Amino acid sequence: MGDLLVSLYAQEFSSPEPRTEGTDLTIRPVLAPERHVVLAWIERHFSQNWASEVAIAIGRQPSSCLIALSNGELVGFACYDAVARGFFGPTGVAEAHRGQGIGSKLLHQTLLVMKHMGYAYAIIGDPGPAGFYVDVVGAIEIPFPGKGIYTGMLRTSEPAASS
Ligand SMILES: CC(C)(COP(=O)(O)OP(=O)(O)OC[C@H]1O[C@@H](n2cnc3c(N)ncnc32)[C@H](O)[C@@H]1OP(=O)(O)O)[C@@H](O)C(=O)NCCC(=O)NCCS
Questions:
Q1: Atom of ligand 1 lying closest to residue 89 CA
Q2: Does the residue 17 lie in any domain?
Q3: Residue nearest to atom 30 of ligand 1 (CA)
Q4: Is 137 part of any domain?
Q5: What is the CATH classification number for the domain harbouring 50?
Q6: Do the domain assignments include residue 160?
Q7: What letter does residue 145 receive in the DSSP assignment?
């Protein structure tokens, strides 16, 4: 699947309510002093690569990383302008909290912020769950398969075996 494109002006972005009763769900930008807490959480739940991307987003002013707090506990995040300007992502919800509408809420709120920043479209680079973006915000595939922004990216290599 190639990159996805989402129109920011062809739809209204709402803030759907969480599906779990009694949940106080807050979505807000990461504060600078929370950076280490959020990055450690992302490394624990997702990957070092994502933590590197999120570090860029948190370092922007205003911070371009939103977090979701469920009753005060960090349960998800979503970024924009991390790997490239106009890109949405990475995003993730802790496994135990998936399927409760939190990912959709983060996506809607982040795209709304991008719209207010002046973007007309958002790009989702190398999407994992394309169906999520198609269903929740009507994303369409950019017909340019093959080379994406992550092509040729350096990755952590295994330490060389000592002889
Ligand atoms: C993708 C992700 C953020 C969705 O978060 P979530 O809180 O579970 O999503 P929601 O509960 O808001 O789901 C919204 C809808 O999208 C659908 N959906 C969720 N994850 C999906 C997936 N992986 N593939 C296809 N559809 C998906 C849900 O079924 C739901 O549909 P419904 O409204 O008919 O029930 C979460 O599954 C996740 O963290 N995945 C691992 C990290 C990842 O892949 N991030 C995206 C990188 S591009």
A1: 48
A2: yes
A3: 99
A4: yes
A5: 3.40.630.30
A6: no
A7: -
- Percent of the chain whose predicted confidence (pLDDT) is above 70: 91
Protein residue with its CA nearest to atom 39 in ligand 1: 92
Minimum CA distance residue for ligand 1 atom 8: 98
Domain count, the chain: 1
Range of the domain at 87: 4-141
Using alpha carbons only, give the angle 34, 69, 88 rounded to the nearest 5 degrees. Answer: 75
| Ligand 1 lining (C-beta closer than 6 Å) | 89-93, 98-104, 127-129, 131-132, 135-136
With respect to residue 163, please indicate whether it lies within any of the assigned structural domains: no
- Cβ–Cβ < 8 Å for 137, 111: yes
pTM above 0.85, yes or no: yes
Binning pLDDT at 50, 70 and 90, where does residue 140 land? very high
For residues 69, 98, 119, 140, the Cα torsion angle rounded to the nearest 10 degrees is 180
Worst-scoring range by mean pLDDT, 76-90, 129-143, 146-160?
146-160
